[in-house]
Amino acid sequence: MSSRTGAKVPVIDFSNQNLKPSSPEWDLLKFQVREALEEYGSLCFRKPLRAYHGSQSRLYDSISTDDAHIAENIEQCLTTTLWPQGNISFSKTLASFTQLALGLEKTILRMILESFGLEKYMDELVDLTNNHLRAMKYGRPNTSEPTLGIPQHCDNTILTLLSQLNEVQGLEIQNKNGEWMNLNPSPNSFVVMLGESFSIWLNGRLSSCYHRVLMEGNEARYSIGLFARPRGGYLVKVPKELVDDKNPMLFKPFDLEEFLKTYSPQIVQERGKSALIAYCSV
């Protein structure tokens, strides 16, 4: 197993209620977001969340829904799976959490686009996105040895937002030196990761984040994630502003749904982190 390091991913404070586009505070955070993503492809955001917390590994299990902004989807796909008789309080809490996460997702997306002078694409990227909400459980490994809860991978998303629901750690990202960094996020923060679809859209200007879950001890780990993916039928293509003589086109347009039909989840995992990159590289 590759080496691990005690280095820390930057934590950015988004708790300022008066944060507005074009303000000095906004511009400062925008710089910090871009800097962290250039270095790690990932970062942590401190934002009040406590009110909202009430071959795959054999340890991993999940339930999920697409179009998470629609409250009925949460009720039908998540709540009734756990409580067939219904649980109104849980549905409302999860819907509130989702709206908060969606707001943060749009803020981060706008900051990234502004940092490249591409804010005119904001509405297009929001419209193409299918927000997939997933609740995840990593079971107890029952061994003293570190055990993979989920193997190393890179999400095919635009952005991924993760929130840990208990105190059991294990989420790690890989830095540029190939070392694994334990994130140890607090219960009132989000971890934000750049996905491969957005890295390709940016013509490789920012790299996506490779991560894994490494379980130790005898407790289960719970987390929830919002995965912003390109909708099927939409061609993800590099904007013309990111292509010039010094920066040639690196990727051809692709439809994520067509890619997933061609490359089954098992094949994607077997081929590792370059599957989507190889699929659409020029």
From TrEMBL:
It comes from the Eukaryota. It holds the Pfam family 2OG-FeII_Oxy. Gene3D superfamilies: B-lactam Antibiotic, Isopenicillin N Synthase, Chain. Residues 129-230 form the Fe2OG dioxygenase domain. SUPFAM superfamilies: Clavaminate synthase-like. One of its GO terms (molecular function) is 2-oxoglutarate-dependent dioxygenase activity. Keywords: Dioxygenase, Iron, Metal-binding, Oxidoreductase. PROSITE patterns: FE2OG_OXY. Belongs to the iron/ascorbate-dependent oxidoreductase family. This is Probable 2-oxoglutarate-dependent dioxygenase AOP1.2.
